[in-house]
Specification:
The longest helix has 26 residues. The chain has 13 helices and 20 strands. The strands form five sheets. The chain has a six-stranded parallel sheet, sandwiched between helices. It is of the alpha/beta class. The termini are far apart. Bound molecules: iron/sulfur cluster. Iron/sulfur cluster binds next to α6. The site of iron/sulfur cluster has 10 residues, from α6.
């Protein structure tokens, strides 16, 4: 039982690092705390409680978390500092040892912050509360908004794939989800709160359904049947879970946008094997072709990691050639970072950090070329834009259905609405396409 007199008018400051899932979860924790009387500390105001929701996807992420905690400790010297999230789950002792940290909460404990705060108010001890995430079956729903229009709805958590370079399954546990009925209800709530676009988010989103014996495509169909005016995007989907049936359905759906984000990770079959990924480059290339067959103008973003152990120069070159051959719109390039406890640490040879950087630059250049080409192919076409916000200059920015960033002189009444436009030309700094009504 929470005694909310303890929390009345207490000031809380949130700091979130990492993925959209973390942001969605912080937002849900925020709602919970404000229901119990907490108020958000304004800029420059001293907080009573600081909550840091951490990420641990790379060593750099860990480092950024430590920096954020140190900064908060300096800015809010009297606040109770609570650290949760992936870094807290994976390395609780390391986190607890950082100066100023009062409470460390693992993934399972993340949503019970109020109980732990109450306990702390009662006996004021610094503690670590942390349990084995691999044992949990609990799915905690979460939703956050990015500005006024776009919402991120957590539909799935955890992962059962155990790719050799990845620690996420150890931080987030097994794949799990709410039911289709519950998820559709959560989407309806987001729409009622003003969502115009909802991004379905998860650790392995396409694996939705594991715990409820349902299928991701049935969730997509149920959301597509909603009568409201809403756009959906799928945050990311593993190639082996992106079935031809799903692609064909998405091609004719009412609400799902022609936009895919697919992790390839490498374009070398030998390295895919070392990573224990569940497809080959041939399979991946076929998926891209199938998307274009059904949805010719789809935006396709692809994740790649460079410099993993075992990626020799020959394999990297193979990957470059394969990626060059794909008809895709953008690459999200990540440099490999060694993670304690992963199988990849047994693999030789190691790619030096300087070489990882060089490989990353090669792929960034390919990505820029592909994005330019994709944008140029869309010039002259008609599309629907959801106008999101005003830029520093007098323009507003938004995205077309197939995720082209566009801009137009600001029209106040059009913000947060969908408008039909014609794509005209590049803007001055070539960061977006200008449109005409
Ligand atoms: S699919 Fe692989 S890379 Fe993605 S979260 Fe699961 S284990 Fe990590």
């Amino acid at each position: 039982m929470i005694d909310n007199s303890l929390f009345h008018n207490k000031k809380v400051h949130y700091h979130t690092l990492g993925c959209k899932l973390n942001f969605a979860e912080t937002s849900s924790i925020g709602k919970m705390l404000s229901n119990e009387g907490f108020v958000k500390a304004r800029a420059g105001e001293q907080a009573d409680v600081c909550i840091v929701n951490t990420c641990s996807v790379t060593d750099t992420a860990d480092h950024k978390c430590r920096q954020a905690i140190n900064r908060l400790n300096r800015q809010h010297p009297n606040a109770v500092i609570i650290v949760t999230g992936c870094y807290a789950q994976l390395k609780p002792d390391e986190v607890a040892a950082i100066e100023g940290v009062d409470l460390v909460l693992g993934m399972n404990e993340k949503f019970d912050i109020l109980e732990y705060l109450q306990k702390r108010e009662e006996n004021s001890s610094d503690e670590i509360f942390h349990s084995d995430i691999l044992k949990t079956k609990k799915f905690r729903p979460a939703c956050s908004r990015d500005g006024r229009t776009r919402f991120f709805l957590k539909v799935q958590d955890g992962c059962d794939y155990y790719c050799t370079y990845c620690t996420i399954p150890f931080a987030r546990g097994h794949s799990r989800n709410a039911s289709i009925v519950e998820t559709v209800e959560a989407a309806k709530e987001a729409i009622a709160e003003g969502a115009k676009e909802i991004v379905l988010s998860g650790v392995n989103t396409g694996d939705f359904g594991k715990t409820t014996s349902e299928k991701f495509i049935d969730l997509v169909k149920a959301l597509d049947a909603l009568p409201q005016d809403i756009r959906f995007r799928i945050s990311s989907i593993e190639p082996n879970l992106l079935t031809d049936e799903l692609i064909e359905y998405l091609a004719h759906s009412r609400h799902f946008m022609p936009h895919f984000h697919i992790p390839l990770q490498t374009g070398s079959n030998a390295v895919l094997k070392l990573m224990k990924r569940r497809y080959t480059t041939e399979f991946f290339a076929e998926k891209i072709q199938t998307i274009h067959k059904f949805i010719p103008d789809a935006f396709i973003g692809v994740d790649v990691i460079v410099g993993v152990r075992g990626e020799t120069e020959k394999y990297f070159q193979e990957a470059v050639n394969f990626i060059e051959s794909l008809d895709i719109s953008q690459l999200h390039v990540f440099s490999y970072s060694e993670r304690a406890g992963t199988k990849m640490l047994e693999i030789e040879p190691v790619v030096s950090p300087a070489e990882r950087k060089r490989r990353s630059e090669v792929l960034h250049e390919i990505s820029a070329k592909k994005t330019r080409l994709f944008y140029e192919k869309q010039i002259g076409k008609t599309d629907y834009v959801l106008w999101e916000s005003r830029k520093n200059d007098d323009n507003m920015v938004g995205f077309t259905e197939n995720y082209i960033r566009v801009e137009h002189p600001y029209i106040k009444e059009h913000i947060n609405t969908i408008q039909k436009v014609k794509l005209a030309d590049w803007n001055e700094d070539k960061s977006a396409i200008t449109v005409i009504y």
